[in-house]
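Write out the bound-state structure for fe (iii) ion.
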Amino acid sequence: MARLDTDRLVDTRNGLISRELFVNKDLYQQELETLFTRAWLFVGHESLIPNPGDYFVSRMGAESVILSRDKAGGIHVLLNTCRHRGMKVCLYDEGNTTHFTCPYHHWSYATDGQLVGVPQYDTLYPGMDRAKWSLIEVAQMANYKGTIWATWDKDAPPFLDYLGAAKEHLDLALDCRDGREGGSEAFLGVHKWIIPCNWKLPAENFCGDTYHNPSHRSVDMIGIGPSARSGTKGRRDDELKGAQHVWVSFPAGHGIHSAIQPAMMPYAEAFRDTPVIEEYFRHCYEERQRRLGEKSRLLPFVGTIFPNSSYHGRQPRSICMWHPHGPESTEVWRIFLVDKDAPAEVKDLLRHFYMRYSGPAGMTEQDDMENWNYATAGARGVIARRYPLNYQQSMGAGKDDDPVAGHVSVQITEENSRRFYARWSDYLAGRDWDVLMGRRDGTPRRAAAE
Ligand code: FES
Ligand code: FE
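---
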């Protein structure tokens, strides 16, 4: 397949992005081959597979993978395709098993991927080395605070290097509300649904598109939107009073929006409800300040870990995968997170809040989906595609803090999106890891309209 020149389509110098990115079939195939085979991808949460033999079928790019816990407790990410004739070896979404037995001719694989059973092996395959025909395993896997990440590229940098300084922001979604490290679990199962939009639109939105908040005005007014300033049983965001909002773009392509309190502030009501719930949120807030000190001033909103894993760091805390499902289709998987040891009453409150807010039936998420769906459809038109999209917001307003911390802006900016697409273009052009990690410049961007 001839590679398309994506630098022509991504003109970050002038803030112009071609609509081809959201509909073009060749670009989609190029993404699968050059981006989803190399970048670190979120695969699932270890709480989905707590016991030996547990498995959860996930995806990397458009391919099915099995997140598996072997009988010794080790975690593996295995390509869900038989080495014999390619049948899917695991047809279920999740479960517990001793083996993955292929339905076609019954080759069977242990939960660590080893080929252990071949019918009539001695007669039909004398001398075949079964060890060479195990399920294909990812080149690298990382378990970060219970979240499992993987890449097919053995030369990719270690996950923590890839995450870089985005770590302290992602931590806010993964750590307990009281500041303890880790301790979250997947809550409410995994919500899965398909939307008619290109996967990059939601990924980009979560890089820090705070500018779209008017889309959520109606849900805001009833107290379950992003600002949630009203409602008798809803969330309040008093702890954000006077906070400095920041938008940061990191060298590997991640983008986040967080906020920093002006000082360590006394507790301000987060949720109004029963005494148990109110006491829980107060306790967590004060305990977090005690544990983290000045660092507790950092409060999360959203972020995207390049390319297609996003998080909500405030309630509802969740991790979302925007799986490519075709140029104009995205399979969304959202995993809500909750502190494993939170009281049942608190979990119940959050369960209601989460389902009202996010997921296929969540009112805030529905607002977003409508935007992304129409934007994708709007990129399909022959005439429309002649005109690039405007990504010029707040050009030059931020500053490069340092090579590691990335680019920081204290006003709403599309710089995070510009850099997201610049990095996307670098992957599609097949550039090396020094470029992909921002250690060296790639090719200067040319004008999309040339
Ligand atoms: Fe799996 Fe033949 S395809 S055993
Ligand atoms: Fe939104």
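---
The radius of gyration is 23 Å.
Residues 82, 84-85, 87, 102, 104-107 surround FE2/S2 (inorganic) cluster (ligand 1) (CB under 6 Å).
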